[in-house]
Amino acid sequence: MLAINIRLAKNKVMIFNHGLGDKDEQLLFSENNINIGASGFCVGDFRKNMSGGLVLPLKKIDGLDLCGSGVDLLKIDVEGFEERVILGASETIKKHRPVIIFEQNKSEFFNGTSRTIDLIKSFGYDFYSLRTNWYFGEHLLLKALSLIVRSVVGDRVIIEAEEKFKHKNHLMIIAVPWGLG
Predict the structure, then answer these.
(1) What is the C-alpha separation between 44 and 130, in angstroms, rounded?
(2) 18: left (phi > 0), else alpha (psi -120 to 50), else beta?
(3) C-alpha to C-alpha distances, 30 to 54, 69, 71, 122, nearest whole angstrom
(4) Spatial contact of 36 and 62, defined as CB atoms under 8 Å apart
(5) 37 and 105 in contact (C-beta within 8 Å)?
(6) How many contiguous H segments (helices) and E segments (strands) does the chain have?
(7) What is the pTM of this model?
């Protein structure tokens, strides 16, 4: 699937066969038995519902050979590893000023911000969140109701400027360099 998407992008995308972090190292990557999309590297807190694992290489974005090309967009979906990826990309971010799209879990927020948001903000970025007009809450039944309503009446996407984030899961935060938004 990745190879097909890259062909559609007409070679504007590069594939690197390793993970990203704040240093070149190898870490244990474990699969989440309940939600494969929540799999991740075993660092910090004990990771529930994980099994087995592979030792995978990590590298800094700043150390990659980008063949002299610019970086316009960073899309990061790394299940709690965002801050480490941003730290490993700090020089690239300062030089190229890409738009950065990432997720943040509810557990990472404190007083309307997170360590990742504060780090990106230090590079001179504004923040926007993407949401739909049919969000009813985090409870499983409310999520199901939201899904039913969207399937019946459709969905409208709303992009809102954010200065202080609500204490909830944010599926898409868009960081835009000052002067671009």
Answers:
(1) 28
(2) beta
(3) 7, 33, 29, 32
(4) no
(5) no
(6) 5, 9
(7) 0.76
> Do 59 and 16 form a contact (C-beta atoms < 8 A)?
yes
Amino acid identity for residue 21 in this structure? G
pLDDT digits (tens, 9 = 90+) for 29-73: 777 677 666 666 666 553 444 456 778 888 999 998 876 778 888
C-alpha dihedral sign at 20, 126, 159, 171:
positive
Question: Hey, what amino acid is at 135?
Answer: Y
CA angle 41, 43, 46 (to 5 degrees): 105
Return the closest-CA partner of residue 42 out of 19, 60, 71: 19
Q: Under the phi-then-psi rule, with left for phi > 0, alpha for psi from -120 to 50, and beta for the rest, what region is 79?
A: left
Pairing of strands 73-76, 99-104: parallel
Q: How many CA atoms lie within 13 A of 31 on its CB side?
A: 7
Tens-place pLDDT, residues 100-153 = 999 988 889 999 999 999 999 999 999 998 776 666 777 778 778 777 877 777
Contact 101/73 with Cβ under 8 angstroms? yes
